[in-house]
User: Which sequence fits this backbone?
C-alpha cells in the first residue's frame, strides 16, 4: 500500500527528510513568535482568545475569536468587555464591566491626586464577581471576528500545506 | 507542476487570501458609517433606601432607586456590519471618600434595526449600591445613556447617545418606604 511512498522516501534520502522536519519546525516557531510578539505590543499574555462559554451570548458564541489589548496605565471603563482569569481556574472568563470604582490611595494621611489604574475595583456581569485586583485581567476586547470556520480553515490549510509542500 | 498537490495548494492559498482581504475590507468599511444616534434621557426620581447587604446579613447597605425616561433613535448605528448594540444607562459620581464610581443600572441589547427606536420609562434593573455602603456626602451624579456597537468583524466602538443636562443629587437615605 505504502510501497510507492516508501520508494520516493528512499529516493529523496535522509537529508531531505531532515529538511522537511526543519521546515515544519520553523513554521511552528514563527507562528509562536508572531503570537508572542503581538502579546508584547498589546501588553496581554494572550492577544487572541477563543470564547469558551456562552455567558456573553448573543454577542459572543462559543468558538468566536476575540482580539485583546491591555493598555498600560489606563483605567478600564464601564461597558468594556474584559477577559479575566481567576487564580486557580484555568478557563478565562469573558464578561462586561458594569461598575468601576477608582479607589484613591491615601499615603500618610494625604489623599493622592489621581487614582491609579492598579487600585481600580471592577464589577463584571454574569456571576457578580468582585475583582479586587487588576492583575487578573488579561485584556479587553477590541476586535471581533464572528467567523469560527475561518480558524479551522486557516489552521487546517496551513497544517496541510506544511505537510504537503515538497519545495 | 500540474500535480493535484499543486492545485490544492493554489486553490487554498487563493481562498484564504481572498477571505482575509474581504474580512479586512468589511472591518474597515464600518468607519465609513459615521451617523450618530439621537435621543434624550431624563431622570424623574432618585430615592435612597437603607437595607441589608446582600452577602452580609447584618451589615447595612444603601440602595439607590432611579426612575428614568429614555427616548432614543439608534437606527443610524445599524449598518451591514452591525451585529448588535449594547445600550446602557450609567451613573457617574464621586463618593465621600473620593472614590470615583461609574455604575450601570440599566441595559438593553438591541439586535434588529426595527427595535432600534427606544422609548422606555423604567427603573433600575441592577442594584445600585455604594462601595462605602453610604451615599451620604457623595457628589451629584451624572446620568448618561451610552452604547457599544458590536460588529460582525472588526473593532468594538463606544459612544454616547444622550445625557441628563444637570447632575442630580442623592437624597438622604430613608429606612422604610412611606
Assistant:
Amino acid at each position: 500500500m505504502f510501497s510507492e511512498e516508501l520508494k520516493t522516501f528512499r529516493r529523496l534520502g535522509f537529508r531531505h527528510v531532515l529538511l522537511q522536519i526543519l521546515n515544519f519546525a520553523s513554521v511552528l516557531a514563527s507562528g509562536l513568535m508572531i503570537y508572542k510578539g503581538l502579546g508584547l505590543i498589546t501588553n496581554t499574555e494572550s492577544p487572541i482568545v477563543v470564547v469558551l462559554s456562552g455567558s456573553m451570548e448573543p454577542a459572543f458564541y462559543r468558538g468566536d475569536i476575540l482580539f485583546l489589548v491591555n493598555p498600560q496605565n489606563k483605567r478600564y471603563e464601564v461597558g468594556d468587555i474584559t477577559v479575566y482569569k481567576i487564580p486557580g481556574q484555568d478557563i478565562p472568563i469573558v464578561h462586561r464591566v458594569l461598575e468601576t470604582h477608582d479607589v484613591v490611595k491615601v499615603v500618610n494621611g494625604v489623599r493622592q491626586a489621581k487614582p491609579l489604574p492598579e487600585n481600580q475595583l471592577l464589577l463584571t456581569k454574569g456571576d457578580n464577581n468582585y475583582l479586587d485586583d487588576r492583575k487578573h485581567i488579561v485584556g479587553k476586547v477590541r476586535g471581533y471576528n464572528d467567523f469560527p470556520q475561518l480558524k479551522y480553515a486557516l489552521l487546517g490549510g496551513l497544517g496541510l500545506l506544511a505537510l504537503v509542500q515538497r519545495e | 507542476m500540474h500535480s493535484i498537490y499543486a492545485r490544492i495548494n493554489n486553490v487554498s492559498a487563493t481562498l484564504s487570501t481572498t477571505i482575509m482581504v474581504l474580512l479586512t475590507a468589511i472591518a474597515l468599511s464600518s468607519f465609513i458609517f459615521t451617523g450618530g444616534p439621537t435621543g434624550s434621557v431624563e431622570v424623574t426620581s432618585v430615592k435612597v433606601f437603607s437595607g441589608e447587604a446582600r452577602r452580609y446579613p447584618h451589615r447595612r447597605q444603601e440602595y439607590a432607586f432611579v426612575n428614568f425616561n429614555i427616548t432614543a433613535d439608534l437606527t443610524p448605528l445599524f449598518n451591514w456590519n452591525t451585529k448588535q448594540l449594547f445600550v446602557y444607562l450609567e451613573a457617574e459620581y464621586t463618593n465621600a471618600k473620593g472614590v470615583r464610581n461609574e455604575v450601570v443600572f440599566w441595559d438593553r441589547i438591541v439586535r434588529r434595526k426595527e427595535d432600534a427606536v427606544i422609548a422606555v420609562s423604567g427603573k433600575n434593573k441592577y442594584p445600585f449600591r455604594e462601595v462605602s455602603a453610604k451615599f451620604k456626602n457623595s457628589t451629584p451624579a451624572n446620568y448618561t445613556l451610552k452604547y457599544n456597537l458590536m460588529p460582525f468583524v472588526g473593532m468594538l466602538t463606544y459612544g454616547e447617545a444622550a445625557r441628563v443636562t444637570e447632575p442630580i443629587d442623592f437624597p438622604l437615605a430613608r429606612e422604610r418606604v412611606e
Observations:
- The mean pLDDT of chain A is 71.
- Chain A has two domains: 3-42+149-164, 48-147.
